[in-house]
Design goal:
alpha+beta
């Protein structure tokens, strides 16, 4: 009886323990389910008396990260294809990526969204791009939830989560995450990096920038890139951004060696313009004379040898829309080769600069404590550079392609500070070996399959190994959070959070053959769409070619393809005809995912999306603009639009009695195109830079005098269409002092991708070759007034303007 009682007692005790344990687990899970940031302030545990003598203070709480949380360095390369970097079979040597791949693991089936802003939004939030309003680039936003261009506060970036868990955070490089109408310093600034969880920001806001003289910000303060003495002509933005990361690492570890950092390093390379110092470009002289068809074959063989594609992978054929290399004239071949040499140099220089950052990890002794994620491309290589490529990409965007003679004339300047070069479509397609298509084409892997290398010493089972699990850019955030031991928050700064839609990749760090955990993933961009599911992918390339800028197509006439990518790495064998039921299943799944993640309505429009009524504008309806002293660094999209109409610029200035008078009064644009009113040798001058091909100059016959002066530019537009010419009359203190013709003008509101409108200086690259930026005016520009006549365009011309605007916007991407 006693023994039975003991058994009953033990059973009862065990039941209590299990109940308490379950209750504890429930409490723990409840806490996990309601993890809010910021964390609650701890209760004061001191004693408060009448004076400090009878009081006891508590300790001020400092938020510390979870024990063992690593430093995190995320490196995002721009516009790079699978077959571009030497590590993955490309012809350009990339020894630093090689080095990271040897110490880490390479994900060979990793994917992006096929476009810039969308990939960046997905990377930083852990949600699908449409799910956070970034279905396209910010400049093409509209009021549909999936396309607003505004990441909602319900999708906090990983930077904010880490910062509120004890990390220090820095953002270096390209942004392109701010709605187009919020990029000026007038704000609002809550979508700028400083209010998205980053303690520091150094970089540029637009989709691309001049590597030689970029418009930069430090946090929200405009700054000039500082070029070290002796590095003139050899120092570009690539160098400056790497220097910034290295200095941050040194400073952060000097002050808080035990506190982990999160650095998001997105250099903007290798997006056009493909600028690089001549010493880098010359290393590749003659190395691409074999042409893009042969390059693909050679790259494919290298990929097989390196094991970065399975041995049964097929090389996909060249699309009929892309010309064969052998069909090019000798002049076209010569220019195309040089454009590719500059692109390769840009790639090699980028690898070198990232290598310097990796060296800094070694030098500070923190490599073993740092999780590095190096993603090669936010999409595939850009097939937006036209079939012939360009010395100045904006000429094609303006509808005025460069002829061979012009390109040959400037061939030695390609990649230098006077160029804005881009590779031909054929070279971009070759850089996406072994896949079909490229950037913008979300249906095929040429646009979406980008290698990812992850290194974290001691946490990876097989350094140098490769992973074949299917993953997507939304999986980076949950991977970082799991590595740091930080829970996904349900609320951040009082806003309930959308669930993170990515999954962690850490399950595969120590098990190369681990079962794939991502079973389904949709893709969509400009109507190009696909649905991956358990080894199968249904794809549909829709309508417009990426190097063309117009066209809306019938979705009902689309042709879908089907691939078994568990066996067909390159999407070479279309099985749609043999497996109609599987294709229908995946098509239905695409619509399910599309509804779930705000992809609908599908929208392939380009011209119509340039309609300014689709999104807010700071200049809509305005014809009179007043800029006061100090007004500068204004985005072109927020400055007076002088395209296709008459206008006047009236500047009131104070010329100093001593120190000279030379300097810029007002400038819009930069080396790629723009206008500038400046004083040189005491005389006002107006210059119109028509995409580097033509420069129209009107020089005053009279000089300014010390004290107040009024300089006026009057432009009478010829009319009769878009981008026409007109008569410039220059006045000084109400007296006519110069006159001349401008035969060709810009077709839309923007001359460039990332240049600005400035008074009293030219803040980025110079509009005119007759001065070097910033060429500050030594006196005071008190007031600049711009009056714009309403444009009186036909419906057909208005459509052409919309097309030109959309081309300029796409260039910014």
């Amino acid at each position: 009886m006693k023994k039975l009682s003991s058994i009953i007692y033990l059973a009862f005790a065990l039941t209590v323990v299990i109940f308490v344990s379950c209750k504890s687990d429930q409490t723990s899970n409840s806490q996990k389910g309601e993890y809010k940031l910021p964390q609650e302030q701890p209760e004061f545990k001191g004693v408060i008396g009448t004076t400090y003598k009878d009081s006891t203070p508590d300790k001020i709480a400092v938020i510390n990260p979870p024990k063992g949380a690593p430093n995190v360095l995320v490196i995002l390369i721009d516009d790079s294809g699978y077959g571009q970097w030497g590590t993955f079979g490309g012809q350009t040597p990339t020894p630093n990526l090689d080095r990271l791949a040897r110490s880490g693991i390479s994900y060979l089936r990793f994917h992006t969204t096929a476009l810039c802003s969308p990939t960046r939004a997905a990377l930083l939030t852990g949600r699908n791009h449409h799910s956070v309003g970034m279905g396209v680039i910010t400049e093409l936003a509209d009021a549909y939830p999936g396309y607003s261009g505004q990441i909602p506060k319900s999708a906090a970036m990983v930077s904010e989560v880490l910062r509120q868990n004890g990390y220090t955070t820095e953002y270096v490089g390209k942004n392109h995450q701010i709605a187009d109408w919020e990029t000026s310093l007038a704000g609002p600034l809550d979508r700028w990096p400083g209010l998205q969880g980053f303690d520091h920001f150094y970089g540029f806001i637009g989709g691309e920038t001049n590597q030689w003289q970029p418009p930069l910000f430090r946090d929200t303060t405009p700054v000039e890139m500082e070029i070290p003495k002796g590095r003139e002509g050899k120092y570009t933005l690539n160098d400056s951004l790497a220097d910034e990361v290295i200095n941050y690492i040194h400073n952060q570890k000097s002050v808080t060696p035990d506190r982990p950092f999160f650095i998001y390093y997105a250099p903007g390379a290798t997006h056009a313009p493909h600028h690089a110092p001549k010493e880098w470009i010359d290393k590749f002289n003659g190395q691409f004379d074999q042409g893009w068809d042969k390059y693909r074959e050679e790259t494919y063989q290298r990929q097989l040898k390196l094991g970065v594609i399975p041995p049964d992978t097929k090389l996909t054929p060249r699309p009929a829309e892309i010309p064969a290399w052998d069909s090019l004239s000798p002049e076209r071949k010569r220019v195309a080769s040089r454009l590719m040499e500059a692109f390769a140099a840009y790639t090699a220089q980028t690898d070198y600069e990232v290598g310097r950052v990796l060296d800094a990890l070694d030098e500070t002794g923190i490599t073993k404590d740092t999780l590095v994620l190096w993603e090669i491309g936010d999409n595939g290589a850009s097939i937006e550079g036209t079939l012939n490529g360009a010395y100045n990409e904006f000429t094609a965007l303006a509808g005025v392609p460069e002829d061979p003679a012009y390109l040959i004339k400037h061939i030695d300047e390609i990649g230098g500070p006077n160029s804005y070069n881009h590779i031909p479509v054929g070279w971009a397609w070759a850089c996406n070996t072994p896949f079909q298509w490229g950037k913008q084409v979300a249906s095929h892997f040429g646009g979406t399959r980008n290698p990812l290398v992850i290194s974290w010493p001691g946490h990876i089972s097989d350094p140098g190994g490769k992973r074949m699990q299917f993953h997507h850019v939304i999986d980076i955030v949950p991977t970082i959070l799991e590595a740091a031991g930080i829970q996904q928050p349900t609320e951040v700064n009082g806003v309930k959070q959308k669930p993170i839609e990515g999954i962690s990749m850490m399950y595969s760090f120590k098990d190369p053959s681990a079962a794939e955990q991502r079973h389904i993933q949709y893709f969509e961009m400009f109507g190009n769409r696909a649905l991956y599911k358990d080894g199968w992918i249904a794809v549909c390339r829709h309508g417009r070619l990426p190097w063309l800028s117009a066209g809306s197509y019938d979705f009902d006439k689309d042709t879908w393809e089907l691939y078994d990518v568990s066996k067909d790495f390159s999407e070479s064998n279309n099985l749609a005809a043999q497996n109609p039921d599987k294709l229908k299943e995946l098509q239905a799944d695409f619509l399910t995912e599309a509804k779930k993640y705000n992809v609908l309505p599908l929208d392939d429009r380009f011209i119509e999306r340039s309609d300014p009524h689709l999104r807010p504008s700071l200049i809509e309806g305005r014809t009179h603009f007043v800029y006061f002293s100090g007004a500068a660094h204004i985005p072109e999209s927020s400055a007076a639009n002088t395209a296709n109409t008459s206008f006047t610029i009236t500047a009131t200035i104070d010329v100093p009695k001593t120190g000279g008078s030379d300097g810029v009064i007002v400038a819009k644009g930069g080396v790629a195109g723009g206008y500038t009113l400046f004083i040189k040798q005491g005389k006002p001058r107006f210059e119109y830079n028509w995409y580097t091909q033509e420069r129209y100059k009107i020089i005053s016959s009279a000089s300014v005098t010390p004290g107040k002066n009024v300089v006026k530019v009057d432009f009478k537009y010829d009319g009769g269409g878009i981008a026409k010419g007109g008569l410039i009359t220059l006045y000084l203190n109400d007296k006519k002092v110069g006159e001349g013709r401008v035969e060709k003008t810009e077709p839309a509101a923007r001359f460039s991708a990332d240049e600005t409108f400035d008074t009293g200086m030219d803040s980025a690259s110079p509009v005119s070759a007759d001065y070097q930026s910033p060429f500050r005016f030594p006196g005071v520009v008190n007031r600049v007034e711009i009056d714009v006549a309403p444009a009186n365009l036909s419906k057909a011309d208005a459509k052409r303007v919309e097309l030109a605007m959309i081309q300029a916007m796409i260039a910014r991407e």
